[in-house]
Amino acid sequence: MKKSYRIKKETEFQKIMQLKNTFANRNFVIYIEPFDQKHFRVGLSVGKKIGNAVTRNYIKRVIRNNLNQLDSQINQNYNVIIIARPNIVNLSFEEIKKNLLHVFKLANILKKVE
């Protein structure tokens, strides 16, 4: 995922979270903001309850890698903040992908299959 597709500024995080357009499952909470752009943008938040810095960075890498794989399925007109919950530490790569797909389906930001 290109760095230009990431949300990094706290003001952008706050703006998206204030909309309270949120969806969740056991392992993720996502906030979405409809936005007119060529590619979706993502902000990741992995809290200290999940583990030490090594574990948190690993989780972020796995989430980014899954997002790269799901890129063609995700509607491009959204800013998304993904917050990982503590249960995520015990999940495999495929289970994380399945959970991301599930929460994106709840949020209705996946492209329609024709």
TrEMBL record:
<dbReference type="InterPro" id="IPR020539">
    <property type="entry name" value="RNase_P_CS"/>
</dbReference>
<protein>
    <recommendedName>
        <fullName>Ribonuclease P protein component</fullName>
        <ecNumber>3.1.26.5</ecNumber>
    </recommendedName>
</protein>
<dbReference type="GO" id="GO:0001682">
    <property type="term" value="P:tRNA 5'-leader removal"/>
</dbReference>
<dbReference type="GO" id="GO:0000049">
    <property type="term" value="F:tRNA binding"/>
</dbReference>
<dbReference type="InterPro" id="IPR000100">
    <property type="entry name" value="RNase_P"/>
</dbReference>
<comment type="subunit">
    <text>Consists of a catalytic RNA component (M1 or rnpB) and a protein subunit.</text>
</comment>
<keyword id="KW-0540">Nuclease</keyword>
<keyword id="KW-0378">Hydrolase</keyword>
<comment type="similarity">
    <text>Belongs to the RnpA family.</text>
</comment>
<dbReference type="GO" id="GO:0004526">
    <property type="term" value="F:ribonuclease P activity"/>
</dbReference>
<dbReference type="GO" id="GO:0042781">
    <property type="term" value="F:3'-tRNA processing endoribonuclease activity"/>
</dbReference>
<dbReference type="Pfam" id="PF00825">
    <property type="entry name" value="Ribonuclease_P"/>
</dbReference>
<dbReference type="GO" id="GO:0030677">
    <property type="term" value="C:ribonuclease P complex"/>
</dbReference>
<dbReference type="InterPro" id="IPR014721">
    <property type="entry name" value="Ribsml_uS5_D2-typ_fold_subgr"/>
</dbReference>
<keyword id="KW-0255">Endonuclease</keyword>
<comment type="function">
    <text>RNaseP catalyzes the removal of the 5'-leader sequence from pre-tRNA to produce the mature 5'-terminus. It can also cleave other RNA substrates such as 4.5S RNA. The protein component plays an auxiliary but essential role in vivo by binding to the 5'-leader sequence and broadening the substrate specificity of the ribozyme.</text>
</comment>
<dbReference type="InterPro" id="IPR020568">
    <property type="entry name" value="Ribosomal_Su5_D2-typ_SF"/>
</dbReference>
<keyword id="KW-0819">tRNA processing</keyword>
<keyword id="KW-0694">RNA-binding</keyword>
